[in-house]
């Protein structure tokens, strides 16, 4: 494994996103003196917080998987997960709603899930599910060790026994084709393949290696921290500070200072120079290259689709929904084609509706409710739509009307607070192509082909977060923190 050159005693981490915080914890655990400089007044970055009139909303991730990775980051400084977070496993993890009016609960317990699939789709489909679980569990085991939780320096690093196992098991075929080998019912085909969208691709374009995402949320389980997912950011920041990491909020870094092919520190918007032996950059990777580092030629990347999120505080409650609800439209391949290939808004939307106040009433005023509605939309590279103003209002109205048609009776009338976040907002927050989901996980933007976490020429600059390896989403970003720290310490903690 390549590591940064020279001394590494004092490290400056730019950004207290989950990637930056995980890196800071691992570095502090190995005795480095760590300073985190964060632009915002709170930690978490995309996993942030929006408070309006007594309603508290998570601004980013809501589907929290793999809490053992949070435990591992906290464990790097000797802290226990239970002392920082109160996690509730969600049962069901999701409820799926189909256009024919049927519903399917996604339950992490495989025996109960097989029974649920048998109830909705018949016993043969349940057998397919059990075979899928074995397949996806093996995939996760093979991918995790060799390709995800490992710093890859060259494509030849991929040549391991597990690569052969993946090839032999069809992991490099298209995801949808592979999923259809286990499932015959379009409802199960959808619920175990839509996660490709998290990787920025349609199931008919993504590789079957991404079945691991369905494994992580559908089988390994989804949990919810009391106070919302932002509590993860606060917990990690609190533990880091307790162990000597200095976190300076409200501090924007404007450039990395360099001399003789090395970073010497960073310069803040106030003109302060903060010296460092090594610098870790958590801002969106293409933006870090463009705005913080000396000019150089940049590789052109293809980005994941973006999303519009509606944060709704409401007087309306719905007894029959779950914490996470996925509403599928009639169209399937056509929806992915609209958003990803043609750069159009969904004509027949598939939506994620999360209802956090159901699990934790403290996030809404007494007797009231919070909803988080996520609609995939094209990124600004694919469709440079003019979001501010009229389009946002019309699209929000359209989403509310769609929810009313799909059974959320009186949804519009119940709204007390509504905030719509669009690709224009993600771009304003410094996310390339106006998407919070970074470069898509196509084959040549995955593993050793994804932008590396060591700067090409500056020997002591490291990247962390969803723009680098291994990729997007809370679990991957936590792993990226560990991998970035390993580039500095030379060992994976
Ligand atoms: C709407 C939405 C829904 C999502 N849903 C899920 C989900 O359900 N499950 C899941 O696993 N993942 C989900 N994700 C993805 C997940 O949130 C991200 O992959 C992850 O949080 C990214 O973390 P990061 O550390 O890479 O970056 P960020 O969170 O962006 O952190 C970067 C930090 O750097 C700071 N910064 C930037 N520039 C500067 C500067 N110049 N000076 C100082 N500080 C700076 C920023 O303020 C920020 O705090 C979702 C994301 C969004 C936005």
UniProtKB/TrEMBL annotation:
<dbReference type="GO" id="GO:0016117">
    <property type="term" value="P:carotenoid biosynthetic process"/>
</dbReference>
<keyword id="KW-0125">Carotenoid biosynthesis</keyword>
<protein>
    <submittedName>
        <fullName>Phytoene desaturase</fullName>
    </submittedName>
</protein>
<comment type="pathway">
    <text>Carotenoid biosynthesis.</text>
</comment>
<dbReference type="GO" id="GO:0016491">
    <property type="term" value="F:oxidoreductase activity"/>
</dbReference>
<feature type="domain" description="Amine oxidase">
    <location>
        <begin position="18"/>
        <end position="488"/>
    </location>
</feature>
<dbReference type="Pfam" id="PF01593">
    <property type="entry name" value="Amino_oxidase"/>
</dbReference>
<dbReference type="InterPro" id="IPR014105">
    <property type="entry name" value="Carotenoid/retinoid_OxRdtase"/>
</dbReference>
<dbReference type="InterPro" id="IPR036188">
    <property type="entry name" value="FAD/NAD-bd_sf"/>
</dbReference>
<comment type="similarity">
    <text>Belongs to the carotenoid/retinoid oxidoreductase family.</text>
</comment>
<dbReference type="InterPro" id="IPR002937">
    <property type="entry name" value="Amino_oxidase"/>
</dbReference>
<keyword id="KW-0560">Oxidoreductase</keyword>
């Amino acid at each position: 494994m390549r590591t940064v050159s020279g001394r590494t005693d004092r490290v400056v981490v730019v950004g207290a996103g989950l990637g930056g915080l995980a890196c800071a914890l691992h570095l502090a655990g190995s005795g480095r003196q760590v300073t985190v400089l964060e632009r915002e007044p709170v930690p978490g970055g995309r996993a942030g917080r929006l408070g309006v009139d007594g309603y508290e909303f998570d601004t980013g991730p809501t589907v929290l998987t793999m809490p053992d990775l949070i435990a591992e980051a906290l464990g790097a400084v000797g802290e226990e997960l239970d002392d920082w977070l109160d996690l509730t496993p969600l049962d069901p993890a999701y409820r799926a709603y189909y256009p024919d009016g049927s519903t399917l609960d996604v339950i992490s317990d495989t025996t109960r899930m097989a029974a649920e699939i048998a109830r909705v789709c018949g016993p043969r489909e349940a057998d397919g599910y059990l075979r899928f679980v074995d397949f996806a569990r093996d995939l996760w085991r093979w991918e995790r060790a060799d390709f995800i939780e490992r710093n890859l320096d060259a494509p030849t690093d991929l040549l391991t026994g597990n690569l052969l196992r993946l090839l032999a098991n069809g992991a490099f075929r298209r995801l949808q084709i592979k999923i259809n080998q286990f499932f015959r019912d379009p409802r199960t085909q959808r619920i175990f393949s839509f996660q490709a969208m998290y990787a920025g691709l349609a199931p008919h374009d993504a590789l079957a290696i991404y079945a691991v995402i369905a494994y992580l949320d559908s089988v390994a389980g989804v949990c919810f921290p009391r106070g919302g997912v932002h509590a993860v950011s606060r917990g990690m920041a609190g533990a880091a500070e307790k162990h000597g990491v200095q976190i300076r909020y409200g501090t924007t870094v404007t450039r990395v200072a360099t001399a003789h092919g090395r970073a010497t520190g960073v310069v803040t918007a106030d003109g302060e120079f903060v010296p460092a032996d090594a610098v870790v950059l958590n801002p969106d990777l293409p933006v870090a290259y463009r705005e913080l580092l000396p000019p150089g030629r940049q590789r052109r990347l293809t980005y994941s689709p973006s999303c519009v999120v509606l944060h709704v505080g409401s007087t309306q409650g719905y007894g029959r929904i779950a914490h996470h609800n996925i509403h599928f439209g009639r169209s399937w391949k056509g929806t992915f084609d609209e958003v990803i290939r043609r750069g159009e808004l969904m004509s027949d939307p598939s939506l994620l509706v999360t209802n956090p106040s159901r699990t934790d009433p403290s996030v809404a005023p007494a007797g009231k409710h919070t909803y988080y509605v996520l609609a995939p939309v094209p990124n600004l590279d694919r469709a440079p739509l003019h979001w501010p103003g009229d389009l946002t209002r019309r699209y929000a109205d359209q989403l509310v009307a769609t929810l009313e048609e799909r059974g959320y009776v009186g949804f519009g009338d119940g709204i007390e607070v509504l905030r719509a976040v669009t690709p224009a907002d993600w771009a304003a927050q410094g996310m390339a192509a106006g998407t919070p989901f970074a470069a898509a996980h196509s084959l040549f933007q995955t593993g050793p082909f994804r932008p590396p976490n060591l700067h090409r020429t500056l020997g002591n600059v490291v990247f962390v977060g969803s723009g680098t390896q291994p990729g997007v989403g809370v679990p991957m970003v936590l792993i990226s923190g560990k991998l970035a720290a390993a580039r500095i310490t030379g060992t994976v903690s």
